[in-house]
Amino acid sequence: VWERIEQFHTDSVMCGVSALALKTNAPTVLRQEALTYKDGKGATVFGSTEKCAPEKAIVANSSAVREWDSNGTVFGYNPSIPGHTAGEFGHNDFYPVVMAAAQVKGDIDGKTALKAMVAIDEIRGRLAEVFSLKSYKIDHVVHGAIASAAVYGALLGASAEQIESAIGMTVAHYVPFRAIRAGKQLSDSKGASAAISTEAAVLSMRRAMNGFVGPKDIFRNPEAIFRFFEPTTGTAASQDNVDITLGNKVRWGPGPSPFNIVLSHSGSDFAVCGMHFKLGLYEHQSAGALEGLISALVNNPKLASGGAEGIDNIN
């Protein structure tokens, strides 16, 4: 477990630093924005010792580590645990939450930080196994935002009630839909989705620690996303034809969550151990790679003169 989390954290940092070094748009914009929110008790962005508001440092750093879309991936399918086969995916874009919390707190050692990263991956990874956000056109980053609120609060000493409030606020106020991924020309919102949701989650946690009270018991709330899309009361045999009128009092009344979630706390069966490195190119990277290949062939036709067998001679 320790080896896996060290590998994935190192990988995410390298992705983030390289994205900034090559001046990619969203990470650069968000980093510049963060540096305008100075906070001597806050956290730092990549490549700076100047502290800024922690949620701003997090949105900048999470955007950077995510930009290449090359970091670890879970697929939300674990048949060894009953009910954990929902099949939602997600990525480890959320380690900057832990780094920011460590900088704010000031006394968190390396092992505690790694344990907190394991916890973020565990919470979001197991949520991905029990509730498929993409099935309802909701962006998968909601699970990571929930995990971020919980772990950031725990590291800073928040009470269970404060963490519950922060998660309630995150789910009630900040649910991103997959509109950011629709269309042929993807915007910066796609790559920065996890970062922006996590910014909101950490801000919610800070508000809760200052006394703001958010919705309680959000996973059983009949009007939150979980029971709204997968109702557990007042439904017919098929959830494809659900009576959602206000007159269906049972539908909107008290009821259980649509899932039970099993979280590991010891041993080696943690979500991070089932996470995969991306060895291939995805989505906009694929488009960029193909464009680069075509440009190279157009500008250097000799590269293709030998046909497929000539590839070995390219250096």
Give structural attributes.
two-stranded antiparallel sheet, mainly alpha, two-stranded antiparallel ribbon, 11 helices, 315 residues, single chain
Rg (C-alpha, Å) = 21 Å
In the predicted model, the low-confidence regions spanning at least 5 consecutive residues are: none
Summed over residues and divided by their number, the pLDDT gives a mean of 90
What proportion of the residues form beta strands (DSSP E)? under 5%
What is the string of helix and strand elements?
Answer: HHEEHEEHHHHHHHH
Description:
- The chain is mainly alpha-helical.
- It contains 11 helices and 4 strands, in the order H-H-E-E-H-E-E-H-H-H-H-H-H-H-H.
- Strand 1 and strand 2 form a beta hairpin.
Question: What is this structure, in a nutshell?
Answer:
This protein has helices at residues 2-21, 25-34, 54-66, 95-105, 110-130, 141-155, 160-173, 188-191, 193-209, 225-229, 283-299, and strands spanning 38-44, 51-52, 73-74, 90-91.
How are the SSEs placed, and which strands pair?
Layout lengths: L1 H20 L3 H10 L3 E7 L6 E2 L1 H13 L6 E2 L15 E2 L3 H11 L4 H21 L10 H15 L4 H14 L14 H4 L1 H17 L15 H5 L53 H17 L16
Antiparallel strand pairs: 1-2, 3-4
Helix pairs in contact: 1-3, 1-5, 2-3, 3-4, 3-9, 4-5, 4-6, 5-6, 6-7, 6-9, 7-9
